[in-house]
Amino acid sequence: MLKPLQVLVAVSDAQGRHTLVKALTKKGMNPLFAETLTEARKILDHQPVAMVFCETDLKDGSFKDLLFSEAGAKPKAPVVVCAQFYDKDLYMDAMGSGAFDFIAYPYAHQEVDWILSGVMQRASAVAGGN
User: Fold this and answer.
1) Domain spans of the chain?
2) Is residue 44 within 8 Å of 52, Cβ to Cβ?
């Protein structure tokens, strides 16, 4: 039996985290939680994750700190930037910085499902060599 894919959820807002967790568990994925950049980096250093949902601003850093380490290496897993509201400049900044996708609160279940489907298609293509 295959192990469920692990997804890092670095979102401190309880309602936003609840929406993401509900969508992830519905798809059979295992959410891992972090409320700080430090916690998120520890998880990424020690556990393989299929993707990351990260708030724009964590207690000790931002999504950019997660996208780019000190060495400039991008994380292996796609990062979805989660914002408290839609802002075109923030969206452009996130996508220009290498984010896989961008969502704004309130996170709609359909939007989260769409993003998860995109990540699964990407993972399938990589595994199949396409």
Assistant:
1) 6-128
2) yes
Cis peptide before 4 (omega within 30 of 0): no
pLDDT truncated to tens, each residue of the chain (130 aa)?
Answer: 567 889 999 998 889 899 999 999 998 899 999 999 999 999 998 988 989 999 999 999 999 998 876 444 555 789 999 999 999 999 999 999 999 999 999 888 889 999 988 877 876 665 555 4
| Residue 117 burial class via C-beta count within 10 angstroms: exposed 0-12, middle 13-18, buried 19 and up | exposed
Tokens 């993972």 belong to residue: 123
Task: Return d(Cα 81, Cα 95) in angstroms, integer.
Answer: 9
Instruction: Give me the architecture of the 6-128 domain, per CATH.
Output: 3-Layer(aba) Sandwich (3.40)
